[in-house]
Structures are given as structure tokens and as C-alpha cells.
């Protein structure tokens, strides 16, 4: 992991300013002489720059993210807790710490990515890819700088965050705020609230079928201490060990504010700005980013194709179904990935098949 110390203060979309901004980023492979072998990965809500760790299923030799072929870059987002300036960063101004950290948007995150790309001397990006919050960043960047990208891959993402998604995030922030230590705005505050927030989030990331497959009880006489209960406790405890409550608050608000049409006439006209050849992937059981949202992207991005990934694991399917994700990405990049899938799906939707 490397650190970029931004030379000038950053003016955020909401009018506030961040000084002494640092950006953590990771690179893999080598930039070729033509500088045309760059893959830029945008990570999801609680991810970091170490894409080889959290997306191992599509990273490595002969896989989509192959460092022997590509120069792969992933930068930790503004507002996070993995090295880039955020609410608990050691160099953040005192009046901007914790709950007082300024509202960061996807636009601001993209602005920081642009700074890192410029620092690395990368004017052209062959493939821009992101899932979930990462997909929100990717689509915003492709709208803002259409000439910079040849290929765009959007996985379980959308053009604007939905009322349903915002409601899930607000419920998690309510859990954080119920924790007195979070409201006290102290380092490490909000652990109990963060545990509860993660439990709520898991319900949006997974599906009924997924929980039935993995948490079903073998004994009908059981009255307490259910597997599903233990699973929620386990996920909450594990998350508290690796993430920061104030960063979670900040990033969930950034997700809520996502709207690619904000700076343009409307969302549709913003998406029409994208010139990159685009693959849009959705997960059939995703209740947080339902496939209707990915179909909307594909319908309004000119040179795009669309595919649905079957999974029992809901939104997390982009992380669990990596064999299929890897196949689709490689097919898109190296073969004649026909756009007929988008047309067929649109016809099926009109006929009520999907």
C-alpha cells in the first residue's frame, strides 16, 4: 500500500474543505510503455485498496484482474478508515473528527481518484470496474470523464440510490446513534452500535434463500440459541474488529447521496455521456441493488450489455459467485459479448417473465 499526500486542500461538493488529505492506494503489475494496460478497481462500502484480498476470486494469473497483463490500481475512498483521510484519520482537523466529518459524496471520491490517476501519470484507463458503492463510483467517473475509459464494468450498482437503500442505511445509523459512546465522539466510539448496524446490513446483503440454506436448524425442538442468531452476532463482532463506526456513518451517507444526474440535466442524459463499452451485471436475489437498477443502467448507456448472475446470496453474490463473475468479465473483454442479452431481458420484463 502506498500513500499519496495531496498537495492542496480539497473542496468538497457541499462547500466544506479538507486540508492535509492523504490517499491510500495499491498497485499490482507494471504499467506498459504505451500506458494502455490499466485496470482501475473501485471498492465497495467497507473495502480497502487491497483488492487481491477481498476479490481474490477474480484476481490473479489467468483471471480477470491479472497483474501479469495489467497494471491494476485500487484507491481507498475518501471518508474510509483504511489509510485515506476520514473521520478518524490522525491528521484530520479537530473540528472535523468523528461525527463532525464533512459530508462526502461519490463525486468527491471520484475527484480523489482523479488526483491519484494524475499522480501516476495515467491519462487512459482500459478497464474501470466497481461493485456496489464501487460501481457507484465507477459510473460517476465514467459520466464525468467519458474519454478516459475504454471499458466499464458495473456490478450490482445503480445510477441513484433508492429510498429502500437509504432506509436500510438510516436504520444502521440509528443503531450507531443509539450507542452513547458514538454520540460522545471519542476515538473507538460506537462499537456496540456498529455491531448492531452490521447485523442490519447483513439482512440487506443476503437473501431469504441464502439464510435458509446456511442457517437452517437440524433439530426442531430448539427454543433458543439459533444458528441465525449466532451468525448475526458473529458478523457484528468480526466487523467491529476491522472497521470504524464514524467511517461507516460517513460512507453510508455518501451512498445515500449518489445521483449521477446531479450535475447534469437528468440521470438519463448523464448516462448517455458514457462512451466506454460497458458490461452491467446484476444478482438475481439482490434486494439492496435489485436487477431493475442494473437494467436501467444498461438501457441508458449506449454501448452496453447486461447479464444476471444467479445466486442464493443476494447482494453479496458479487463476492461469492466469483467463478461466474470472472467468466463474464473475461468473455466481455476478450470475446464477442453480444448485446442481445439486454434486448431479450427488456422483452421478458415487458411480458412479466422477470
Describe this structure in words.
The chain has 354 residues and is α/β, with parallel strands linked by helices. The chain folds into 2 domains: 2-161 and 263-350, Rossmann fold; 164-256, Rna Polymerase Sigma Factor, Chain: A (Orthogonal Bundle), CATH 1.10.1740.110. It has 14 helices and 10 strands. Strands 1-4-6-5-7-8-9-10 form an 8-stranded mixed sheet, with helices on both faces. A two-stranded antiparallel sheet has the order 2-3. This is Homoserine O-acetyltransferase. Belongs to the AB hydrolase superfamily. MetX family.
List the helices and strands and how they pair.
Blueprint: E1 2-5, E2 10-11, E3 17-18, E4 22-28, E5 38-42, H1 51-54, E6 71-75, H2 106-119, E7 125-131, H3 133-144, E8 149-155, H4 163-177, H5 180-183, H6 191-205, H7 208-215, H8 227-242, H9 245-256, H10 267-271, E9 277-283, H11 291-300, E10 304-309, H12 317-320, H13 322-334, H14 340-350
Helix pairs in contact: 2-3, 4-6, 4-9, 6-8
Amino acid at each position: 500500500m502506498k500513500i499519496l499526500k495531496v498537495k492542496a486542500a480539497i473542496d468538497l461538493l457541499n462547500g466544506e474543505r479538507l486540508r492535509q488529505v492523504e490517499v491510500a492506494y495499491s498497485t499490482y503489475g507494471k504499467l506498459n510503455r504505451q500506458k494502455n494496460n490499466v485496470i482501475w478497481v473501485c471498492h465497495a462500502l467497507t473495502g480497502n485498496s487491497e483488492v487481491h484480498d477481498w476479490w481474490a476470486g477474480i484476481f490473479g494469473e489467468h483471471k480477470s484482474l491479472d497483474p501479469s497483463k495489467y497494471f491494476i490500481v485500487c484507491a481507498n475512498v475518501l471518508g474510509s478508515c483504511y489509510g485515506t483521510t476520514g473521520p478518524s484519520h490522525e491528521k484530520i482537523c479537530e473540528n472535523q473528527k468523528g461525527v463532525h466529518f464533512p459530508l462526502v459524496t461519490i463525486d468527491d471520491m471520484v475527484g480523489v481518484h482523479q488526483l491519484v490517476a494524475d499522480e501516476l501519470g495515467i491519462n487512459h484507463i482500459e478497464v474501470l470496474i466497481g461493485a456496489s458503492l464501487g460501481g457507484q463510483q465507477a459510473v460517476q467517473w465514467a459520466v464525468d470523464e467519458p474519454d478516459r475509459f475504454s471499458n466499464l464494468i458495473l456490478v450490482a450498482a445503480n445510477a441513484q440510490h433508492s429510498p429502500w437503500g437509504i432506509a436500510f442505511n438510516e436504520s444502521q445509523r440509528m443503531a450507531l446513534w443509539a450507542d452513547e459512546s458514538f454520540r460522545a465522539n471519542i476515538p473507538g466510539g460506537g462499537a456496540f452500535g456498529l455491531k448492531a448496524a452490521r447485523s442490519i446490513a447483513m439482512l440487506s446483503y443476503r437473501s431469504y434463500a441464502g439464510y435458509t440454506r446456511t442457517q437452517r436448524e437440524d433439530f426442531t425442538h430448539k427454543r433458543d440459541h439459533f444458528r441465525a442468531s449466532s451468525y448475526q452476532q458473529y458478523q457484528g463482532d468480526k466487523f467491529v474488529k476491522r472497521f470504524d463506526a464514524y467511517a461507516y456513518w460517513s460512507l453510508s451517507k455518501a451512498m445515500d447521496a449518489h445521483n449521477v444526474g446531479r450535475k447534469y440535466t437528468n440521470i438519463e442524459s448523464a448516462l448517455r455521456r458514457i462512451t466506454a463499452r460497458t458490461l452491467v451485471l446484476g444478482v438475481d436475489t439482490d434486494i439492496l441493488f435489485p436487477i431493475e437498477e442494473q437494467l436501467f443502467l444498461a438501457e441508458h448507456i449506449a454501448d452496453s450489455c447486461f447479464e444476471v448472475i444467479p445466486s442464493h446470496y443476494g447482494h453479496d453474490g458479487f463476492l461469492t459467485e466469483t467463478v461466474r463473475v470472472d467468466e463474464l468479465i473475461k468473455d466481455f473483454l476478450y470475446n464477442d459479448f453480444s448485446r442481445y442479452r439486454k434486448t431479450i431481458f427488456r422483452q421478458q420484463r415487458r411480458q412479466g417473465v422477470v
